[in-house]
Design goal:
Elements (H helix, E strand, L loop, with lengths): L1 E5 L2 E9 L6 E8 L4 H23 L10 H12 L5 H17 L11 H20 L12 H20 L20 H6 L5 H14 L1 H13 L3 H5 L6 E2 L4 E4 L2 E4 L7 E4 L9 E4 L2 H11 L19 H14 L9 H13 L4 H8 L5 H23 L2
Antiparallel strand pairs: 1-2, 2-3, 4-5, 5-8, 6-7
């Protein structure tokens, strides 16, 4: 480092080699004085400036062992966030928020071991199992299901895979993390994801009495396979009565706060979610009932103030229903999509048609429900044939 007088101040400079051209460059900083303290501060600032410049050229940092988990997260987030849809961005942020409730952001990235992560996920599994056995158990984990925990695991591991790709670390600590995921009864788990005809009737009749709008929205989901956010974001102009089609072209997003804090995102959850769905006569009846007195650019499903409903509000109402009618099943707004899949499978509709309706190019849950229902139908047919 060398100092030079610059007007009424001092300029401190340091030379470094450009890795692309092999030419020597100079980085400089300005200080008021040339003292031992200011020289020390200038050296720190120059090192930081040169390292940042080299990193912008090579994609590498000189001192990876100094990178913290917080720095990794901010680097990863700033690069990736714009490639995620708004809704996905919110759920990713929630996952990383949970992670940093257990790991200090000042912790060194290179100090995180596979054993630490293994113990972390083993503890999380234990917490989730306690919640499933005792509904009143709070615990320190915001995740309530093993499937939710697997999603959390995938998102955190993605951040560390990014760290390897950017050469922040040589290998991911997840490489040697081996989780003993609980093995449940697969058949019973699949049956928990959809309602049979009697259960659906009970639920819809309940909501017809206490909240008719939600009864119509849940039935609409059942008839079309749409996500709740997709149904909530429908404008009247998105329904083509002549062709008896609904055009799915967006989803509704709510920010925290007043119910007026919503936006229609002009893309659904995934690219395959852009689709047209055939409407049944009953679906058209629901449309006509909610379209009365509205204009083409108005939302189809709204409350008395003209605001669309949020998925959080809908799921809270479904939780209240579950306290009165316990079918032993998972009941959320997604349940009606799975029930749509199960009904079409029962009617013999091909899987690819069902996947189109629900907006899934490839979904394990959709396939599992479809295969479960079709196998069940084949077994019932076999039993009937044995009685002939």
């Amino acid at each position: 480092m060398f100092p030079r007088k610059y007007k009424n101040k001092w300029r401190f400079g340091q030379r470094y080699k450009d890795p692309l051209t092999d030419k020597w460059r100079t980085a400089t900083v300005i200080a008021d004085r040339n003292t031992r303290v200011t020289r020390h501060e200038a050296q720190i600032a120059l090192d930081k400036k040169i390292n940042a410049k080299l990193a912008s050229i090579t994609g590498e940092h000189n001192k990876y062992h100094q990178m913290t988990l917080g720095k990794l997260y901010s680097t990863y987030w700033n690069e990736k966030k714009d490639s995620w849809r708004l809704n996905s961005r919110r759920t990713y942020r929630n996952s990383y928020k949970i992670f940093f409730q257990h790991f200090d952001q000042e912790a060194k990235l290179s100090n995180l071991t596979s054993l630490m992560l293994t113990n972390h996920f083993d503890n999380m599994i234990s917490e989730v199992q306690k919640k499933q056995k005792n509904k009143s158990y709070k615990g320190s984990c915001n995740i309530r299901s093993i499937s939710g925990l697997k999603i959390y695991y995938a998102r955190v591991s993605m951040m560390f895979n990014y760290a390897v790709r950017k050469q922040f670390i040589k290998e991911s600590p997840f490489k040697n993390v081996h989780i003993a995921w609980p093995k449940g009864n697969h058949r019973s788990l699949i049956e928990q994801k959809y309602l049979d005809e009697d259960e659906l009737t009970i639920l819809l009749n309940y909501f017809r009495k206490v909240q008719p709008d939600f009864a119509d929205m849940f039935e609409w989901q059942y008839l079309t396979g749409m996500r709740f956010g997709e149904a909530a974001s429908l404008y009247l102009k998105d329904i083509d009565l002549k062709e008896k089609l609904v055009h799915v072209n967006g989803t509704l997003l709510y920010d925290n706060g007043p119910k007026q804090n919503y936006i229609k995102q002009d893309v659904p959850k995934t690219d395959s979610s852009f689709r047209e769905i055939a409407l049944s006569d009953r679906a058209i009846e629901i449309y006509q009932q909610h379209a009365k007195g509205k204009k083409r650019n108005d939302f189809l499903f709204t409350d008395k103030d003209g605001c669309p409903y949020s998925v959080q509000h809908a799921n809270n109402c479904l939780n209240s229903f579950r306290k009165k009618y316990d079918f032993g099943k998972i009941i959320t707004t997604h349940t009606f999509r799975h029930t749509h899949v199960s009904k079409l499978a029962e009617l013999g509709v091909p899987l690819y048609v069902i996947q189109h309706n629900v907006g899934h190019s490839n979904s394990k849950i959709t396939r599992d429900v479809y295969l479960h229902v079709t196998k069940k139908a084949q077994q019932e047919l076999r039993n009937k044939l044995n009685k002939m």
